[in-house]
Amino acid sequence: MNDLQILSLPEYAIVGETRLQVQSLLGECFPGWFDGRSYVKQLPHFRFLAMEGESVVGQLGVDVRVINVGGTVIPIMGLLDTAVRLDRRNTGIATKLLDAAECHARDGELEFLVLMADRHDLYLKAGYRRIQPAPTKWLAIEDRQTIKVIERDLSDCFMAKPLTDKTWPTGTIDMLGYMF
Ligand SMILES: CC(C)(COP(=O)(O)OP(=O)(O)OC[C@H]1O[C@@H](n2cnc3c(N)ncnc32)[C@H](O)[C@@H]1OP(=O)(O)O)[C@@H](O)C(=O)NCCC(=O)NCCS
Fold first, then answer.
1. Contact 81, 62 (CB under 8 A)
2. Alpha helices per DSSP H over 16-92
3. Domains of the chain, with CATH numbers?
4. For the whole model, what pTM was predicted?
5. Which residues of 90-116 are buried (b: 16+ CB within 10 A; e: fewer)?
6. Which of 82, 122, 154, 157 most suits a substitution to test ligand 1, by most atoms within 8 Å of the C-beta?
7. Parallel, antiparallel or unpaired: strands 129-130 and 158-162
8. Residues 163, 113: contact at Cβ < 8 Å?
């Protein structure tokens, strides 16, 4: 078996066979969500790809932005669609993808890593904490159309990891865009 390599690639550079493999991986990991595409609502800015030779065995999407939490604007790295091929799970690949993202976010002087997860254990082990309460406002996109602005408490899924000594501010979380 080839050694595992974690690549960081801007979305526009993921083309051809690599894009097809990402689409296939996401279809396998999130049945019914991707409809043969590599995104559900919007393209991420870049992805971390876990590669074994030419094979994509894992991926993590990234959206870099500022958000406004109770009046405090914070630069974040948003993580989406953590996915590892079924036959490669439980060997630490997702953890390596999260580590790579954290390394880049620290180099980029971002203040928090942010993600949404229904199941929390992978992320708790990596040092993420649940944000509770998490009153959140975002731009809803459905079927690739902008619908409206939604406000809802996302306590069940909102997670963040600080990258500096700053604590998560209190107040409404305005995502300043769509929910990744
Ligand atoms: C979640 C997923 C990416 C983990 O990949 P992985 O490479 O096996 O993860 P690691 O080996 O680094 O860590 C394994 C740990 O992840 C945790 N985990 C497993 N499935 C998980 C899930 N769906 N969500 C969160 N954590 C999960 C478990 O704690 C597991 O440890 P354990 O088996 O000892 O209990 C992979 O199971 C997957 O692709 N699942 C389908 C897609 C998905 O649900 N993605 C998460 C979206 S938030």
1. no
2. 16-29
3. 4-178 (3.40.630.30)
4. 0.97
5. eeebbebbbebbbebbeeeebbbbbbb
6. 122
7. antiparallel
8. yes
Q: Which atom of ligand 1 is nearest to the CA of 118?
A: 48
Of all protein residues, the one whose alpha carbon is nearest to atom 46 of ligand 1 is 82
Tell me which amino acid residue 119 is. Answer: R
Q: Strand 173-178 vs strand 135-142: parallel, antiparallel, or unpaired?
A: parallel
Pairing of strands 112-116, 72-84: parallel
> Which of 11, 117, 15, 20 shows the shortest CA–CA distance to 64?
11
- pLDDT tens for each residue of 61-88: 999 999 999 999 999 999 999 999 999 9
Write out pLDDT tens, residues 34-55. Answer: 999 999 999 999 999 999 999 9
- Please give the biggest Cα pair distance in the chain: 50
Q: What is the DSSP string of 73-101?
A: EEEEEEEEEEEE-GGGTTSSHHHHHHHHH
